[in-house]
Amino acid sequence: MILYKYFPCNEYTLKSLAVRGLWCHTFDNMNDPFECLNALEREYDPIDLKLFRNIIANGNIQKWKKIAKLNDKELTKVINLSRKEEISKRAFCSLSEDPNDILMWSHYANNHAGIVVGFEFHELENNHHLQKVQYQDNLNDFDLEKFAYFQIGALDDFMNDIFQDYSIKSTHWEYEKEWRIWRKNPCYYRFDPEQIKELYFGVRTDFETKAIVIQLMNYLSDSVICEQKSLRHDPIRIE
Predict the structure, then answer these.
(1) Total structural domains within the chain
(2) Which domain of life does this protein belong to (predicted)?
């Protein structure tokens, strides 16, 4: 599976190519205020709150034992705050299935003056650190039972659920065909040069930028596809 990273032409892109890493940042630095929709304030069914309360009350963590004594309104506030704290520590990098989207070249690649790099990922990597974004008009129910067990340390493998929940976006963004690389905190996702299979320059990428990028990426294999995109019509497109 090839996934594509859109890069603008700036110092951060050059640094990324030089250190062979994709920077993963927190959701509050994104351009969409609805990013990570499951971080929004939510209401919970009283039955689910009762189950959550019973689980944390029977755990071994004193903090949560005290929280179990709160009323439903106060407990809801604590749960929402805990969810926000959990995701605020995490970081991700966005990629796309499509290297030819006109809007993404405009938004994320310097108005077609940047580059797009295609990275190969294997199916075995499609786990909690690599998530396909789900585009929906409504949020899924949040699993309070699992979240309760996770908070008291009785469930280790909940990160996959968390990253899935936070990889939901509005259907308005569906054209991006996004995937996300998740990390525990802001850092570089270090890629193997062998993962790079394609390199594309935008229709407005100048000679100097191409020369610098090629020099920085001298670690690329000779088999890597390297092309400059061009405009086509009937239908209007990039290829």
Answers:
(1) 1
(2) Bacteria
